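queue> holo job accepted (4'-phosphopantetheine)
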Amino acid sequence: MTAPERKIAIYPGSFDPLTNGHLDVIRRAQEIFDHVIVGVLHNPSKKKPLFSPEERISIIGECFQDPLVEVDSARIEVETFDGLLVEYARMKKAVAIIRGMRALSDFDNEFQMALMNRKLNRDVQSVFLMTGLRWIFTSSSIIKEVARFGGDISDMVPETVERRVKEKFARTVT
Ligand code: PNS
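queue> job finished
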């Protein structure tokens, strides 16, 4: 008898920066899948991100090593990807694409992307995981907005992210 295949899921996104909402989705995904690949989109055409893809990879990797973050670091990896998500999923032998769903406002865009991804590759399923209620209003963009003006983001991001965001804004003239 052959060993059962590991069920691999891709969790794609910009992660600029990683938030507690993202971590909540990752923990839920780890309950369902054997292995989760966090795919950080490397998109040179996207408007100027706060962190480079390399910085985001290093921040996420650092967070995963933090025991307080409570992810199973042996069953997770993080890397950048570019091009079509479904091609990346195919290359990684992923059976699912994970997306977090917060409020109804996420739905339109997510539905459109999922339908397009299914049209492009019928072998990979889109799986939507609801974030915990306390993260419904958390997004990378709102965190950047608050931090840019010196607001407190400590309960919305892991400690590593809070530190790196503060360092970044201390160096960036806005
Ligand atoms: O965190 P984000 O920015 O909402 O993530 C968006 C992401 C990375 C999932 C999406 O932009 C994406 O999949 N980009 C890769 C290019 C692609 O495959 N586009 C077609 C999907 S409709």
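queue> The chain has a mean pLDDT of 94.
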